[in-house]
Design a protein that fits this description.
This protein has helices spanning about 10-20, 40-55, 115-120, 120-125, 180-185; strands spanning about 25-30, 30-35, 60-65, 70-75, 80, 85-90, 100, 105-110, 135-140, 145-150, 155-160, 170, 175-180. The strands form four sheets. Strands 3-6-8-9-10-11 form a six-stranded mixed β-sheet. It is about 20% helix and about 30% strand. The chain is of the alpha+beta class and about 190 residues long. It is built from five helices and 13 strands. The protein has a single domain, classed as tt1808, chain A.
């Protein structure tokens, strides 16, 4: 019987490999996890959200990034690529490369069948350790459904959900609104 030996890497080794790689990978606890490609619906939803928020943030002191901006959760040393990232105020980076953000204000994940449990559970546990994070949005791609988590003054998180296409989600940390009709524009949902 053969057993595979896991290879563990330091965060510095991961970053060196990642910066030369054609494909994105996440890093946690010494392990590197390859990311899979996104579906058409996933890309449409993420693109719609990015475009809608980008238009609203144009003249504000915030920056918005698509899924190529790596985020480091410093307390747990998770390196990950949220689908959309917003930072308000001065962005802080891990090093002079300025490709790993440390202080996101808002993180958005578009769910897939393979990542839904992780994005709502363990990944969100990591994200909650980011002191700068004020809001977290989780968006389904296979049905109209948005989960909106808002950090409260006591450091607890308040969840609100909507499945109504005529609804709008107000993102108070960046003073933007996301209408579900914009999120799901051109996205075919199987009934």
């Amino acid at each position: 019987m053969s057993s595979q030996v896991k290879t563990y890497h330091t965060a510095q080794e991961y970053l060196a490999l990642e910066r030369q790689s054609e494909y994105k990978s996440e890093y946690y606890n010494g392990e590197i996890f390859a990311m899979t490609g996104a579906s058409r619906r996933h890309n449409l939803v993420a693109g719609n959200v990015f475009a809608t928020l980008h238009a609203q943030l144009k003249s504000r002191p915030c920056e918005i990034y698509p899924s190529d901006m790596r985020v480091k959760v410093s307390p747990t040393v998770l390196y990950t690529y949220p689908d959309v990232v917003v930072v308000c105020g001065d962005p802080l980076f891990d090093d002079e490369q300025k490709d790993t953000l440390l202080n996101p204000t808002l993180l958005i994940e578009v769910l897939s069948k393979s990542t839904a449990s992780y994005d709502r559970g363990e990944k969100f546990e990591h994200y909650r350790k980011l002191e700068s994070l004020a809001e977290y949005l989780v968006i389904a791609q296979d049905k109209y459904h948005v989960e909106h988590y808002v950090r409260q003054p006591d450091n607890h998180w308040l969840l609100s959900e909507t499945e109504e296409l005529q609804e709008t989600v107000h993102l108070s940390s960046i003073e933007c609104d996301l209408a579900l009709t914009d999120i799901y524009s051109k996205v075919e949902i199987d009934k």
